[in-house]
Amino acid sequence: MLLSRDSVRNLLNSALLARDTDPSQFALWSLVLLATPPAMYAFRQLVNYSALGFQTAAVIEHSIQVDRMFFLLYGMLVAALVAAAMWEALLPDRTDQEIVGSLPVRPRTLAAARLAAAVWTVVTASTAVNLSPAVFLAIAAPSHPALGFLPVVFVTHIIATISASLFTFLALLTARALLAWCFGAYTSERLATGMQLLTIAALAEVFFFIPGVIPRLVERLAAGDRSALLIPSVPFAALYAWLVGLRYPFLTAGALAAPLLLVLSAAIVIPPYLWPARLFARRALEAQPHQHAGLLSIVACTTAIALPSSPMVRSILMFTVMTFLRSRRHRLVVTAYIGVALAIATVSVIAGGLRGTIAFDRPETSLLAVPLVAIFFLTLGLRSAYTVPSEIDANWVFRMSQPRVMPAIDATAVSMLMLSVVPIGVLSAVVALLLGWNHHDAAVISLLDIASGVVLIEWTLRDCRGVPFTCARSGDVEALKSRWLGQIIPLLLFAFANAAIQKRVLLSDRVAAWYLGIALAAYCIQRLRRRCATRHLTVVFDARPVDTLATLDLSEAIG
Amino acid sequence: MLDVDEVWKSYRGVSAVRGLTLHAAPGDVVGLLGPNGSGKSTTVRMIVGLLRPNRGRIRWRGVDIQQQLLGYQAIVGYIPEEPRLYAYLSASEYLELVGGLRGIPRPTLTRRINRYLEIFGLDTDRHAPLSAFSKGMRQKVLISAALIHDPELVVLDEPNSGLDVAATLVLRSLVATLAERGKAIIYSSHMLDAVEKICQQVVILRNGSAIASTSVSRLRELTEATTLEEAFTSVAIDQDVAALGRELASVALS
User: Fold this and answer.
1) Predicted local distance difference test score (pLDDT) of residue A554
2) What is the DSSP string of A231-268?
3) CB-based contact, B111 to chain A, within 8 Å
4) ipTM beyond 0.90?
5) Phi, psi of A391 (to 5 degrees)
6) B148 touches chain A (CB under 8 A)
7) For residue A102, is pLDDT > 70?
8) Interatomic CA distance for residues A16 and A329, integer angstroms
9) Which residues of B touch A398 (CB under 8 A)?
10) What pLDDT, on a 0 to 100 scale, did the predictor assign at position B110?
């Protein structure tokens, strides 16, 4: 029991971006953030259901199923998010072993406690997320017989959504344990990190597709399509409908499958954690932390050495790139942004396809926007990740040398160029060639993307006053806030309006030269302005006061 | 010349240092002694410019360090009490970071890093992350980082922490050599035998105040002690340490 209680705190700590923040505050605000969308949605449906009495039974059932499916899918996504955030602390690490290993506690007991804590955490999160929708849906129930009986709706909503969430969570935990079991400590760690990045990127993407996916799932369910049962949320939707009182044969099969899936997932998650617990414990103590230089690290070092800049700029650049490449937490922040970028880029291409304006054999606005969307989000993601401190206690080396703001920003800008703008610029040229566009267009597109990226970097760094990763901040509660809504117009301008301009620019080299000239002028003006504003300033290390007008930052909460 | 004049520092109303005065001329090795919580680390952090005193002044060559903080910090080498490093960097990467921030040209920096790692026997582990280093190995990296820019003032806060016997002896010789070369050295430590052998002057702190500030030999003379440890015990510790030890041993039996 004691170990489980401690493990909950440990798991919450692992979900934090910055180590020096209060995990309980972070957990509370994350839950509030995650619970708000379904609560608002359910409240809106409470009003809508009152008008359902005039509709036919088929329409009512379809509409209810869509809503139920939304709550189930949302709960499953939250569970996946919790799993991804706590991934790091599920298996014992060296610190655990040094603290608990010397006590008369069996590794299996520690593993069981950690597993119990993880399950408790996800059940709590899931309950918090689904409680208010359950209340609203129950209140709405008396407005039509097809909605179900009030207390039954409440209990059923809680049971179905928590079961679905728990199933998702346990399935992901099993995958994590199997990776650790089958591969060595180092390989499994890297694979697990890769899987975690994929989960977060997929989650960010799935949010964009929920509205389009749910009605199709419900249609398949209504049509009695048995293959739909293979989609994880469908058996739980069937269970929900069956418990509320619908008695179609197809639903009965699905309703039976749901508890079976849950029991099965609960049964298979235990052995991979408990059985090799001793092995995991030994590995945690014996494994030596080691790291390979990595291609990007080598490129970063080589570029830094080749740069005609001061030793201070080179040092900060290398520090920034190394920290980013070696910090899983910071990469997760950027991954969330990449997920959103992927989703928007995909939506843009699909929308182009639906309008019939997309053609892969020549540069079209929808395609030209894809690298720009990627540059936009990757740059913003890096900027956001840079504000999350890394080993804040070690920043005294920077405090002792008090760098000026200009070299710090120069190094930050170069790191963003290396990590986002240049790779995407080069990649866009490669993809253009693969699509069969001519060499001239591929080269010009690459140049235009890089030029746009350089201007974007200058814009994102306009209020930067610190060295990346070294500035303390007021905590992850504040990390949940940002200016997402304020980024919509810049995104539209930078990616979509810019892509339309780029399409015209490709028609003439003279216009392309103008484009590059304007980008260069914008860069120089912004840089000059920054130089004047920061000439005598040294970098800051302490958090700025919380911006009370900040809005919610969903992506950082994912990290 | 470092002059700490009547310096006060408090945290949220609680005084950590009260009216401390000390001086270190080039070639001086000044020992900073005191029990836990006596204000040694706060003093050290004020001397290196990481903390600003609430009252009083710290001067280097007659100029208030807060007026020329950047220039002052450029000539200070500092080994902190806790080996706080960027653990995901390797030793050479960390030293490159520190050297770069100190503005050392790359060829010179590379040469110095190689030499430090070689002398400390860390060259075979130069690419391993610092998280894989023992406390003593990290301390060696910190010593290298503190000296890499040839500082005029060296501030060492518990520099022996984690070092083995050989490295401790090397450190002692290093401090003596630096002093001979005219560096001013502030040496804060709990290891009284090391302080006795290294320092000419000692300042003993208790509850944030200097209760003794004199040469080691004079302190022994005044307290009629044969060793610095005895002298320190008589002026800085008001507990019966032997009785406390016996009491501790008995707690688990009660």
Assistant:
1) 45
2) STHHHHHHHHHHHHT---HHHHHHHHHHHHHHHHHHHH
3) no
4) no
5) 45, 65
6) no
7) no
8) 8
9) 101
10) 92
